[in-house]
Write a structure and sequence with these properties.
Helix 1 packs across helix 5 and helix 3 packs across helix 4. By secondary structure, the chain is mainly α. Strands 1-2 form a two-stranded antiparallel ribbon. The protein has one domain: Arc Repressor Mutant, subunit A (Orthogonal Bundle).
Length: 160
């Protein structure tokens, strides 16, 4: 069983700080690399997770993106106005509003996906393919464990 000691969690090596910095730096970097015009990286991620079935309600999308429900509503409004995302009231329970990408939204995800992957490839270039695969595998395992110990239900059931 792995454990951290106090030296492992110094400011320059603290896992939480490193993950937050990686997210912030990569978000800005990918934003600078995608040829999106009027679409930000966060908007692209929102469309992708909805299209891929990782989130289909505003609450799930807020949790996936790590933003407030108010910010999520504004994000959805913008994407809906641009005809990239649609809201669909459930026939069974009108309080439930499902999100879905439109055909145009799905096309935008596909069009920009190469730019996003290219930006990530620039960053992971110093790693071997095995190291890159291990990195993703470890992040996925740590996320599953973090959700378990925090009592947070995963958005998508893990298939490991």
């Amino acid at each position: 069983m792995a454990v951290f000691n106090l030296e492992d969690c110094s400011a320059s090596r603290a896992p939480g700080r490193l993950l937050r910095r990686l997210d912030k730096v990569m978000s800005a970097f990918v934003d600078s690399r995608i040829n999106a015009g009027d679409l930000s990286y966060q908007q692209w991620v929102a469309l992708k997770v909805v299209r891929d079935g990782l989130a289909d309600t505003a609450g799930e999308l807020a949790r996936e993106l790590g933003i407030t429900t108010g910010a999520t509503t504004r994000l959805i409004d913008v994407l809906e106005t641009r005809k990239l995302l649609a809201r669909d009231r459930s026939g069974e329970d009108r309080r439930v509003v499902r999100l879905m990408t439109t055909e145009l939204g799905s096309k935008r995800v596909e069009t920009l996906q190469g730019d996003v992957v290219g930006a990530w490839n620039e960053v992971i270039a110093p790693l071997s393919q095995d190291e890159a695969n291990q990195f993703v595998t470890m992040l996925a395992r740590i996320l599953v464990e973090a959700e378990r110990v925090a009592g947070v239900a995963p958005l998508v059931e893990d298939d490991q």
